[in-house]
Amino acid sequence: MTLTINDKQHIHEEPGIETPQHLRDCVAQAMQNYFQQLDGQDAVELYEMVLSEVEAPLMEAVMDYVNGNQTKASQITGLNRGTLRKKLKKYGML
């Protein structure tokens, strides 16, 4: 699958390729589903829950993309290498 990204980081559809749903829309839908399923219970530590649900697969995808090269992963994510390593440890990727 080939997707192109313009200078504003929007993904554009190439001919014959289905356009993926925007991440923002996926998060909004997931949050709506989450709140509907609470069934009157209070939401707790929502911010941390959402970050870990997004951050873990992000780290996995980046590390796969760079074949485990932490320096490249640091550059791609904009995280310093120490912070990257901390996050990789947090998600059991080191």
How would the blueprint of this fold be written?
Blueprint: E1 4-5, E2 11-12, H1 23-37, H2 46-65, H3 70-77, H4 81-90
Antiparallel strand pairs: 1-2
Helix pairs in contact: 2-3
Would you mind describing this structure in some detail?
With 94 residues, this protein is mainly alpha-helical. It has two domains: 40 residues, no CATH class; 51 residues, Homeodomain-like (Arc Repressor Mutant, subunit A), CATH 1.10.10. Helices cover 56% and strands 4% of the residues. A two-stranded antiparallel ribbon has the order 1-2. Strand 1 and strand 2 form a beta hairpin. 3% of the residues are buried.
Characteristic key phrases:
94 residues, mainly alpha, Arc Repressor Mutant, subunit A, 2 domains, two-stranded antiparallel ribbon, 4 helices, 56% helix
